[in-house]
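Researcher: Can you fold this with fe (ii) ion in place?
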Amino acid sequence: MSASLGAALRSVLLTADPGGKVMAARAVARDWRLGRLDFTFDVAMPDSPARPARPELLPPNRMPKRGRGGSERGRIALWHALAHIEFVAIDLAIDMAGRFGAQMGPGFVGDFLSVAADEAMHFAILQRHLRVLGSTYGDLPAHAGLWEAAEKTRHDVAARLAVVPMVLEARGLDVTPATITRVLDSGDVTGSRILQRILDDEIRHVRIGTTHFVAWCANKQKAPESHWKELVGRYFGGAIKPPFNDSARLAAGLSRDFYAAIA
Ligand SMILES: [Fe+2]
Ligand SMILES: [Fe+2]
């Protein structure tokens, strides 16, 4: 008999060590693809995933200013912040599959495990880049608030999809092109290639989230645009701020009907 999917996902969330989490996430995605895991959810997902002793997690208002991008310290701070986002993104994708998979079905699980495998790869290449710059993940403090959206939406898959892929990951589509330009201007060609690859993958992640959200709405006979606005208003504190990367958002299935009125 093969192992349960729920238990495998829970054990990824409970792995604190960054390298260990990367390997565990990729292994569960592969095992699922190869049919080695039973579609059973016999354990609960933890409220919060395990975190390594470092980085120290600070509330946003206590995070040191990143300073100008040109300095060596500023560059390391940028890559460290990006690595932290990807590290948390591994758990966000695994929790999506583990918490809502039973209700949403095997197709949903397969999609979010492919996202988790991407996020693990993103973290690993950012970590490698940090090391080339003489640093490593954990050297600097990191943003403590990235799990908040998951916590607020842990009872409702539609709210989770509305906020995590369709707001937070979509925000990455908006800001990454300017970061790529800045990184390229500083002469870091490898860094700009890494970010371009991440941007391409993130378009797919937003599309996966949007597709499942729209299907969920169709199933419940709700209009996706207005239901999305309602959920974002209830569960996402901040405003959805322009400038928008309209072409990337459109490629991800997020038409302006979703976010124009809310911006
Ligand atoms: Fe990512
Ligand atoms: Fe992503």
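Model: Folded with fe (ii) ion in place. The pocket of fe (ii) ion (ligand 1) is lined by residues 86, 89, 118-119, 122, 198, 202 (CB under 6 Å).
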